[in-house]
Amino acid sequence: MSYFARMSTGLFAAASVLAASTAAFAAAQAPAAPPVSDRITNPVAEFAGIDKITGRIITFDVYIDETVQFGALQVTPRVCYSRPETEQPKTDSFVEVDEITLDRKIRRIFTGWMFAESPGLNAVEHAVYDVWLKGCKQKSDVPPPTAAKADTGKPKTNAAKPKAPAQEQPAETAPEPTDTAPAPNGTDTTDTN
């Protein structure tokens, strides 16, 4: 066996031993990765908005898949995720924002993720209104949309009731509606057959 063949065999064996021991050492010394907790899915997204004309800042809650109008903007969150309180906050929401134009058309001006920890990153900037995500909530003071829809189906006590029918009159004596107005000279122009 030549010198170079013995040398390469020895180097190959040494490299194999070194690689195996390095891998074993690295596996034994590797710290366990911190457990990754799941995102918390929240039913309510909390937004803040500013009316640039009046300077008023308003905070408002919106339920997921519901639309709330803020000025000329319609805000619809699709999801709102947060992390447990024991971790660093990472709150994000996928939001769609539409603008109601002056000619009453609806135009989509924003679709994307908003981040509560970086409100300027993907805030909606409009000529008059700005909207950004403040956080996600499990509960809100605003009644849920299912309760609002259920209330619309129930009869209300103070709602206008249909008038009771007047005493029935024979068909011959019931007045017929007329389509024409009286003539200016006072004569009746309706056709009486």
How would you sum up this structure, described in words?
By secondary structure, the chain is an alpha+beta fold. Strands 1, 4, 5, 6 and 7 form a five-stranded antiparallel sheet that branches. Strands 3-2-9-8 form a four-stranded antiparallel sheet, with no helix packed on it. It contains two helices and nine strands, in the order αβββββββββα. It is globular and about 70 Å long. The protein has a domain at 40-142. A hairpin with a 5-residue loop joins β6 (92-100) and β7. It has helices at residues 3-29, 145-153, and strands spanning 40-41, 44-51, 57-63, 68-70, 73-82, 92-100, 106-115, 124-125, 129-137. The relative contact order is 0.13. The longest helix is centred in the N-terminal third of the chain and has 27 residues, at 3-29.
Short summary:
Mean pLDDT is 74; it is low at 154-187.
Mean pLDDT: 74
Straight-line distance between termini: 131 Å
Strands, count: 9
Relative helix content = 10-25%
- The helix/strand series, from N terminus to C terminus, equals HEEEEEEEEEH
Strand content: 25-35%
Uncertain stretches: 154-187
Radius of gyration: 36 Å
Q: Main beta sheet: strand number and arrangement?
A: 5 strands, antiparallel
State the assembly state of the protein chains. single chain
Task: Please tally the helical runs, counting DSSP H or I stretches of 4 or more residues.
Answer: 2
Based on Cα principal axes, name the global outline: globular
